[in-house]
Write a structure and sequence with these properties.
Strand 8 and strand 9 form a beta hairpin. This protein starts with a strand and ends in a 9-residue tail after the last strand. The radius of gyration is 17 Å and the shape is globular. The strands form 3 sheets. A 7-stranded antiparallel beta sheet has the order 2-10-6-13-5-3-4. Strands 1-9-8-11 form a 4-stranded mixed beta sheet, with no helix packed on it. It has about 250 residues and is an alpha+beta fold.
Length: about 250
């Protein structure tokens, strides 16, 4: 695994080729804005909404360090449609810790979903996914996460290195305050190669071809022992052509 603590940024015009070549790519906020048509100031206006997330009641490790909201959408024919609120479900093959559970989180707020940049962002991600996988309707799950240091340590991916069982994953860094750690690691699913780096810029994004790579984020800790209020906020968006993952029993 190579060590690159600065993100290996991709030029906007090279994103499609890099995703096809290595299965992942990282864009800075300026590139996200350019490609999606979302002004950075309009995206930044959404960041305070991460301070109002309810506690995740489903953590099986007994922790209290994760807060989240979750909503689902379809992206098809240039339209974004929010679907009726539904539980988040993953098979144990993709999430050994929380797989097989119907986890019903509070939905995302209208304050996040009403501004035009929300639909623009999802339409752009749908276009990236269609460029990579072929034009299809996309079933989209969006997750707001705040990982904090309430327990002294916070785990962005308590399930460890994993795939999500979807076609594409987008991990946007939204806020990062008063913490150390939170290193992103991306591995080839079928080989030894990988990279590690730390996302620090709000609205920078890691895009992943979920069939080809495994990813995780390392735990976070306060910059100084006993320091309160440290947190890492992300927006994770997954896109899947075969419908929403659901318990078929």
């Amino acid at each position: 695994m190579s060590t690159t603590f600065s993100p290996p940024l991709v030029a906007p015009g090279e994103l499609a080729a890099v995703l096809r070549q290595q299965g992942y790519g990282v864009l800075d906020a300026r590139s996200v804005s350019l490609l999606s048509g979302c002004p950075v100031d309009d995206l930044d206006a959404l960041r305070p909404l991460w301070a109002e997330l309810p506690t995740d009641q489903y953590l099986k490790d007994g922790g209290h360090y994760r807060r989240r909201r979750h909503s689902c959408f379809t992206v098809h024919d240039g339209q974004v449609t929010q679907v009726p609120h539904r539980a988040h479900w993953q098979p144990v093959e993709y999430n050994a810790l929380h797989g097989g559970m119907q986890r019903l989180f509070e939905p995302m707020s209208p304050e996040l979903l009403t501004p035009p940049v929300w639909n623009q962002l999802l339409l752009w991600l749908g276009g990236v996914c269609s460029g990579l996988k072929g034009v299809k309707p996309w079933f989209v799950e969006a997750h707001q996460f705040r990982i904090d240091t309430t327990d002294g340590i916070g785990r962005p991916t308590p399930e460890g290195a994993h795939r999500d069982g979807v076609d594409m994953v987008a991990v946007f860094l939204v806020n990062r305050e008063g913490i150390k750690g939170g290193e992103t690691r991306v591995f080839d699913a079928d080989g030894p190669n990988g990279q590690r780096f730390i996302l620090t810029e709000p609205w920078s994004v890691l895009l992943l071809d979920d069939s080809r790579v495994i990813h995780e984020s390392t735990p976070i800790q306060p910059i100084q022992a006993g320091m309160q209020g440290g947190h890492r906020d992300t927006l994770v968006v997954t896109l899947r052509a075969a419908g929403f993952q659901a318990d078929s029993r």
